[in-house]
């Protein structure tokens, strides 16, 4: 059986208790999408447990935005994979370009986090993507292959891993690659990962462009930032995947 499509919302450092209302609205859209689409919300760590609790009984998954590679210890400010599980998470985003940029995470760090996530039973959503300079230099496919080789450990399966192709230059900019560029990148990623692993596109997905992106070969859903914060924006993206 093929896995359902997946639309995941990355709330980044946005969301207070008051915004649980949006999550409930998104859960309604998720329920309407039924078994065809998995819906996942990744709020800030402070909102994980209350969101998981508010969404109990719904079919919307809740996930973290990062985890530490270690299980516990002297790592001030960090959250382990087991702690995400305690809070109700089933997935975790790893290797997001904002983590690579702001926290200097390299592929080896990310691979260790993927292992930590797997060891706690979390689904790792591994983000990869080229910078604008890398695309301009014609090295997009090389960069994607290098990132996959170095940050995805042996043992990836459709059950424990999702890959998100997120061109760095498309995140939060309102710019998206052409359908041909997404097709090329996703075909290359598909060739590098075990069969059946879901491939998401991420970077400035909106209600307006979602249908065209979802119609692209090898696109199994989306990782959505800004447009996942409000139910009125996220709902049509979920609907476009049905
Ligand atoms: C993201 O940060 O993963 C993302 C895709 O953001 P946006 O949709 O806002 O470009």
Which helices and strands, and how do they pair?
Elements: E1 5-10, H1 20-33, E2 37-42, H2 45-54, E3 60-64, H3 81-86, E4 91-94, H4 97-102, H5 107-119, E5 123-128, H6 132-136, H7 140-151, E6 161-165, H8 179-192, E7 198-202, H9 210-214, E8 221-224, H10 231-241
Parallel strand pairs: 1-2, 1-8, 2-3, 3-4, 4-5, 5-6, 6-7, 7-8
The protein binds phosphoenolpyruvate (PEP).
The site of phosphoenolpyruvate has 13 residues, from strand 8.
Throw out a few tags for this protein.
triose-phosphate isomerase activity; 8-stranded parallel β-barrel; TIM Barrel; alpha/beta; isomerase; 242 residues; 8 strands; glycolysis; single chain; binds phosphoenolpyruvate; Triosephosphate_isomerase; 10 helices
